[in-house]
Amino acid sequence: VLTPRKEKGYGDCPNFPGTPPADVVYRPDRYNDLSEDGRLLIQRWARQARAALARPNSRSGNENHRKKPSITSSFEAFIFAWISFNGWASRCLESEDDVKLVNVLSVEPSLSDTFAQLVNSNVQVRQSLDEFSSQWPIFRTADVRGVALPQESRAERVERYVLQRPTALREPRCHLRHDDGGPPADWGHTLRTIYRVRCNLFHGTKSAYGAEDREIVGSAAGVLVPVVCHLVLRE
Length: 235
Ligand SMILES: [Zn+2]
What we know:
By secondary structure, the protein is mainly α. Helix content is 57%, strand content 2%. The protein has helices at residues 29-32, 36-54, 63-67, 71-93, 98-106, 109-121, 123-133, 154-164, 187-202, 210-233, and strands at residues 138-139, 170-171. The radius of gyration is 18 Å and the shape is globular. The termini are far apart. Bound molecules: zinc ion (ZN). Zinc ion binds next to loops. The site of zinc ion has 8 residues, from loops.
């Protein structure tokens, strides 16, 4: 029995969904009924996201860095992909409420299956997902400002955030429930955490440590862009 707890970190888990909102139903066929212009716009954002992700990092002298997109390209890729995803999802759900959108889609079984297939068949997606989920939970930037130390590892930093900022919002919000190795990097946990990254980015807050931002946004984009291309371009 899962007892509700007030501390952050014990929030509801997408693997134990509650009652879905009655007013929002996921119907992917609604995307097909969209006007040609509307669909083209959503698809154009997805292609721009893919192009940004593929852009080589010409400004980096470091060979390893050059293969990865620059932080600007990663941010662009992530934001374009989110706009495309949002357009597709608001159509499929007939709702423009982002929170509902994430809550309903994160527990949608057909999307869980699609996501698992994509991760299993695409090495790059799997690597990005490993890199992304190894940094979970992602906290709301404004809630953990001033706590990070420059030399610590991500794991040490997360531990410090949890102890020193127990009320900080974070995703997966259920991470402390998963005391056996952390939350699984499945569709539900991944979508919710991508949405946390999106909120951190769109609200213009940046953490003090650029390298960590690069890793979080870069790996999140490496997951989100192929998912969105699959959903809206059917590729
Ligand atoms: Zn969970």
